[in-house]
Each structure stands twice: as C-alpha cells, then as structure tokens.
# Entry
Amino acid sequence: MPAAGPTLLFERRLWLQGLQWVAGVDEVGRGPLAGPVVAAAVIFPPCVAPDRLPPVDDSKRLSPRVRQELAPRIREAALAFAVAVVDPCEIDRLNIAQASFECMHRAVEALQPAAQHALVDGLRNPRLSVPQTPLLGGDGLCVSIAAASVLAKVHRDGLMLWYDTVYPGYGFADHKGYPTARHRAALRALGPSPLHRRSFRLE
# Structure
C-alpha cells in the first residue's frame, strides 16, 4: 500500500544518483484577488532519516496553528531554504502563471548551497535554470515540496495579516485575499486597493 502523506522517495532517487542538493519548490497565492504570489524552496540534508524531519504535509491539509508550529522546525531541519515574493503589479504585468514561475525561480536562485535539482509542485517550470522533476500534487507526495508549501503559506499569510492593517476594511486577515463573499462585498463598497490584482476580474 502507498505511504500516507509525503515521503522522501523522490529525494532518495536523486541522492542515489549522487545529487546532494535537492530542492523542493512550491508556491501559494495563485487564486486570490489581492496580494502577492509567494514561493519557497527547501533543501534537506542528503540521505537524512525521515524521523529527523518535521511531519510535514500539503499546507492546505494543515491548520494555521500546525503550519505556524512546523515552519520554524522546517527552517531548523533544512540545509537551506529561501522564500520569494512577486507583488500584484508584477502579477498584472506578467500574468499569474508566469508570475508563479518567476516566483519559484527566484526562490531556487536564492538557495545557498545552490540546488542541483528541483522537485517542483505542478507543471514543469520553464524559468528554472536547474534540472527539475515536476510532480502534480507534489505537496502531498514529496517531503521537500510539502515543506516548501508550508513555508510559503506561512509567509504569505503573515504578509496578508500585515496588509490588513495597511488596507483596513477588506478583511485580508480573514480571507487572505481569496474571493470570498465578504471580500467581494468589500470590493463593491470600497473599490480595489493597491493590493488588488487589476488583471483579475474583481467584480
């Protein structure tokens, strides 16, 4: 039977090929009407034992409290990690798909040591300069990608909590920019803020 939750299977395959610095990469924030896209990349020590790593999973399956508890444990266990942000103006200029690719590229490029291979959640990323393995649903399959998804989600949620104080009235602390009924009602009442993606259908 398949293992429940993410495993180190994909990392192990690459470690056995002699690759040491294997990065898991994921992004969050494609769907919201407001706020940035955030990506994270995580490299765990090569051949690390699973019991030496925090019990990560796809960030969408975890409560905010659990994500907050896991984030510092991931950073402590990682050999390297990086977080990158693409803001709404750049999303509007590039389009959301290209902005997501660019954000993941920036996270991977910021890693020290540099990644030798990237395990990428979703489709192949044409902006990455390192060899890659795209994995559909990778945040639920691969430990490194799951860890990246948690770091990206925690970072973006923290930004949206801060933006709630900068642009009050929209409810960013609650919905994090996603198109909830409350968010759409606030948009009708207040109009778009500088944080809103003008290339998205806001009404």
